[in-house]
């Protein structure tokens, strides 16, 4: 077993800044993230994540006033989004601006349903985790770095239509930067969501593909990415973070990424975005487990997203004294069978039909790094 923080080291990308900007105040320091409450209903404990749909509630933006309204909108003609945008701009540039504090609005979207989601529903979770998820597919469907199902494409088109209405009727600001996980279900979801929207010339849809946004690296083949060339071929306009390797060097067929490694990676990729990108309006297309970890790193309450769902967060990032580097197990074994299992038992692992059962524990229900169907 590899015992180190290799995963974090690999993912702490040097600020080789695609954007060419560096948050110098953060040099040699740590960053503490806060999800600022009072702007979106999702951070309110009274809002249930179950069945929540961004497209019925203006992404959850709360109707309220901001201290900047009086000057920005004396005539009372601006939309909620325009007034919120002016407030965020003020937070980042007002006369009391501290150089060790930054605010960003992050929109984190989960990909639309992929073939791996459909297959987990089809086979049931024990058979999926113990056997089917380790295969490339079943002859009918392929779920190694899967594409979207027709239902998943519809979820992305729904987001596309909703963003258009927000831009046209609500004057929602256009994103200044886009990021995506390298897994196809995310690069495709981002494309279907944004590619055909008419955007201002200075805010084009040019996502940066970052390893740190990928799903928890269980041994499931749905979490192994395609090569850089294959991603480029599908999406020639997408860019890659510095150091993005041609082949997938992070996924492992026999050992899974631990929760601790996943949490450190989520914090590291957010640190990297805040250190290298001075923009405020940011779209991230990622995964259920990844967004769970990102919300954790942002000190936001848990808010599980169904496929195709999107959550915005107003983030305050503050430079603090350098914190100790966490030490953790980067990988752990994963229980599987060589054939479809009889069942699996929580805490004990897979019950295989043959004598090849591995006695290793199956991931517990708390592990967010699965490929959940909902
Ligand atoms: C980070 O900010 C939170 C408030 O969101 C605070 O409770 C916490 O103590 C801070 N952590 C550090 C290490 O400064
Ligand atoms: C904000 O107000 C609009 C119209 O005035 C309403 O449709 C919407 O539901 C309100 N949003 C929230 C989150 O209360
Ligand atoms: C393969 O899995 C898909 C779900 O991803 C399912 O719809 C299909 O029926 C399965 N094919 C076979 C041959 O079992
Ligand atoms: C990207 O999105 C555009 C606009 O919806 C679509 O025409 C195109 O086929 C998509 N490309 C891929 C590879 O999905």
Short description:
By secondary structure, the protein is an alpha/beta fold. 28% of the residues lie in helices and 14% in strands. The chain binds 2-acetamido-2-deoxy-beta-D-glucopyranose (4 copies).
Order of helices and strands: HEHHEHHHEHEHEEHEHEEEE
Strands, total number: 11
* Class by SSE composition: alpha/beta
Kindly report the name of the CATH homologous superfamily. Phosphoglycerate mutase-like
CATH architectural name = 3-Layer(aba) Sandwich
Shape: globular
The amount of beta strand, in percent, is: 5-15%
- Counting DSSP H or I runs of 4 or more residues, the number of helices is 10
Biggest β-sheet, characterized?
A: 7 strands, mixed
Write down the overall mean pLDDT.
91
Structure keywords:
Rossmann fold; 7-stranded mixed beta sheet; single chain; 374 residues; binds 2-acetamido-2-deoxy-beta-D-glucopyranose; 11 strands; alpha/beta
Give structural notes.
The protein is of the alpha/beta class. It has a single domain (about 5-115, about 150-335), classed as 3-Layer(aba) Sandwich (Rossmann fold), CATH 3.40.50. The chain is built from ten helices and eleven strands. The chain has helices at about 5-10, 70, 80-95, 115-125, 125-130, 150-170, 185-195, 230-235, 260-275, 290-295, and strands at about 30-35, 100-110, 175-180, 210, 240, 255, 280-285, 310-320, 330-335, 345, 350. The strands form three sheets. It has a seven-stranded mixed β-sheet with strand order 1-8-2-7-3-4-5. The structure holds 2-acetamido-2-deoxy-beta-D-glucopyranose (NAG) (4 copies). One 2-acetamido-2-deoxy-beta-D-glucopyranose binds next to helix 7.
């Amino acid at each position: 077993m590899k015992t180190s923080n290799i995963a974090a080291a690999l993912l702490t990308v040097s600020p080789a800044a695609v954007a060419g900007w560096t948050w110098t105040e953060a040099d040699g320091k740590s960053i503490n993230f806060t999800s600022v409450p009072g702007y979106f209903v999702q951070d309110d404990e009274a809002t249930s994540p179950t069945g929540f749909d961004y497209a019925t509630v203006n992404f959850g933006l709360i109707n309220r006033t901001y201290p900047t309204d009086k000057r920005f909108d004396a005539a009372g003609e601006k939309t909620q989004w325009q007034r919120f945008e002016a407030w965020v701009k003020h937070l980042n540039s007002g006369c009391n601006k501290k150089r060790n504090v930054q605010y960003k609005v992050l929109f984190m979207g989960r990909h639309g349903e992929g073939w791996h989601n459909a297959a987990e529903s089809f086979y049931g979770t024990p058979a999926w985790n113990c056997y089917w998820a380790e295969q490339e597919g079943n002859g009918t469907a392929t779920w190694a770095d899967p594409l979207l199902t027709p239902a998943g494409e519809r979820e992305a088109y729904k987001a596309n239509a909703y963003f258009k209405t927000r831009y046209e009727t609500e004057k929602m600001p256009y994103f200044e930067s886009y990021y995506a996980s390298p897994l196809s279900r995310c690069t495709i979801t981002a494309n279907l969501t944004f590619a055909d929207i008419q955007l201002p010339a200075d805010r084009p849809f040019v996502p940066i593909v970052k390893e740190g946004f990928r799903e928890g690296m269980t041994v499931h083949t749905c979490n192994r990415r395609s090569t850089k060339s294959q991603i480029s071929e599908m999406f020639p306009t997408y860019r890659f973070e510095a150091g993005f390797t041609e082949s997938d060097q992070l996924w492992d067929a026999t050992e899974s990424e631990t929760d601790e490694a996943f949490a450190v990676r989520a914090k590291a990729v957010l640190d990297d975005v805040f250190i290298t990108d001075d923009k405020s309006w940011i779209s991230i297309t990622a995964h259920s487990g990844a967004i769970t970890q990102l919300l954790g790193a942002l000190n936001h309450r848990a808010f599980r997203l169904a496929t195709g769902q999107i959550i915005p967060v107003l983030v305050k990032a503050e430079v603090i004294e350098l914190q100790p580097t966490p030490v953790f197990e980067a990988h752990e074994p994963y229980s599987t069978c060589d054939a479809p299992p009889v069942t699996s038992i929580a805490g004990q692992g897979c019950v295989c039909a043959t004598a090849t059962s591995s006695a290793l524990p199956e991931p517990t229900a708390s592990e967010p790094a699965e490929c959940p169907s909902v």
